[in-house]
Amino acid sequence: MSERETATRGVRERSKTPPRARPVAFDDLSILLPDWRRHLRATNKAPLTIDSYLAAGNGLLDFLRGTGMPTAVHDLTREHIELYLVSMQDRRLSPATVAKHYRSLQQLFRWLVEDGELDRSPFERMPPCRSNRSRCSPRTSWATLLQPARA
To answer: What is the mean pLDDT of residues 106-125?
Structure first.
């Protein structure tokens, strides 16, 4: 077997091995959402309530992943939550839907504090989301929120 054939064979054999999964932090939202589901079931929440809460949690997780933001709960801030809610508004979802996600995520972060995963919730000083006035967060554009702070 020539050197080139040996090298090519090595590449082919290595490409057959599955790619390594990215390590996930123990405080990653993807790890904690199934734990929250178990907690909700243990506290006898209605199945539709559980589904609604988890839809909001998974929606936030998908948004964070899609925008390259952190998914570890210790790294999440009020700004991350606000960006998610603003993105929902930008997609022209109804104010009631945005308010529902706000309340569901508020419950998630309340549980994370109670469970000892977080010391403080990003919702702590966040104004409540109103379905009748869509007051979830300031009507700020993505560009404004993502631009560097001015000196």
So the answer is: 93
Name the token pair of 30.
Answer: 């993807």
pTM of the model: 0.70
The token duo for 71 is 């998914």
* 78-90 and 95-114 helices, crossing angle to 10°: 160
- Give the up-direction half-sphere exposure of residue 82: CA atoms within 13 A in the CB hemisphere: 20
**CA-CA distance, 37 to 48, in Å (whole number)?**
12
Q: Helix-strand-coil percent breakdown of the chain, rounded to 5?
A: 60, 0, 40
CA dist., res. 121 & res. 107, Å (int): 10
- Residues 60 and 84: beta-carbon distance below 8 Å: yes
